[in-house]
Specification:
- The chain is of the alpha/beta class.
- The chain folds into two domains: about 80 residues, Alpha-Beta Plaits (2-Layer Sandwich); about 200 residues, Rossmann fold (3-Layer(aba) Sandwich), CATH 3.40.50.170.
- It contains eight helices and 13 strands.
- Strand 8, helix 6 and strand 9 form a beta-alpha-beta unit.
Length: about 280
């Protein structure tokens, strides 16, 4: 796969944005290999994502970014540019359930995920051997009501030590403290075993069973201070019936959970997710 620069933009909607961005890229000799645009007409807000062939930008990323600043100022853009040749570092948080962690580690090992898993942090020892088989450093940080503040301080120190840019809660089953949610806003991804906003919090399959729903699902979302209410990245569902027990729902749900989490993480790693308020625009392919 060719190395690309990913230019991501959001700004007030106005005439001339696409033309000005395309003109600047052309001035730099850039070749656009993928282009995505979306206008939120209700809020007059514009979103854009371009992939630019890195080898076509002769002066390199820093010079390109410095020159682009005048275009950004003209249109009051919130923008970023990243290099696919520098994969984002990922810290995986886990507990006892293995399906999401196992799936992500396997995809990373097979080079299906465009990121670098730098560590696994867990509040139980159960999955240590799994992480070590993949030769990923494993850190056991127990969390109890009495040690919670100290535990999350240690956890955050580990994230900083490894330089992790993305935190993935792979069925971690712990609520992050508000400070950590704020410090890593837009960088913490969770999988919730329900089709949010239905059945938030604990035991969603039990809640679904009590309501007699015919569809269960999973939601990949960014973590905020409000439980299970952050911007949604990806969702999917599977059909069930009155004949399915709660254990059946859990079994079927695990497949949905791991695929939804993997897709959502991939979108994030490829800078395909633009957050606007508590909603997202996802330029998937």
């Amino acid at each position: 796969m060719s190395r690309v620069y990913r230019l991501v933009i959001s700004c007030p909607d106005q005439i001339g944005i696409v033309a000005s961005v395309a003109h600047y890229i052309a001035e730099q000799g850039g070749t656009i290999v993928e282009a995505n645009h979306h206008t939120d007409a209700a809020n007059s807000w514009f979103f854009m994502r371009h992939e630019i062939l890195a080898s076509s930008i002769q002066d390199g990323l820093e010079a390109f970014a410095a020159g682009f600043e005048r275009v950004a100022q003209q249109f009051e853009m919130q923008w970023s540019i990243s290099d696919s040749g520098r994969p984002k570092k990922i810290a995986l948080f886990a507990s006892k359930e293995s399906h999401c962690l196992a799936d992500l580690l396997h995809r990373w090992h097979e080079r299906e995920l465009p990121g670098e898993v730098v560590c696994v942090i867990a509040n139980h020892e159960d999955l240590r051997s799994m992480a070590e088989w993949y030769q990923v450093p494993f850190h056991y940080v127990p969390v109890t009501p009495e040690t919670k503040l100290k535990a999350f301080s240690q956890t955050e120190s580990l994230v900083q030590e490894y330089g992790a840019e993305v935190i993935v809660l792979a069925r971690y089953m712990q609520i992050l403290p508000p400070k950590m949610c704020k410090d890593y806003s837009g960088q913490v991804i969770n999988i919730h075993h329900s089709f949010l906003p239905s059945f938030v919090g604990a035991r969603p399959y039990h809640q679904a069973s009590e309501r007699g729903v015919k569809l269960i699902g999973a939601t990949c979302h960014y973590v905020t201070e409000v439980l299970d209410a952050g911007p949604i990245i990806e969702q999917d569902v599977i059909r069930i019936s009155h004949a399915h027990s709660i254990e059946d729902m859990k079994r079927l749900g695990r497949d949905v959970e791991k695929t939804v989490l993997a897709r959502g993480l991939r979108y994030h790693l490829e800078d395909r997710v633009l957050i606007h308020g508590n909603k997202t625009v996802v330029f998937d392919v």
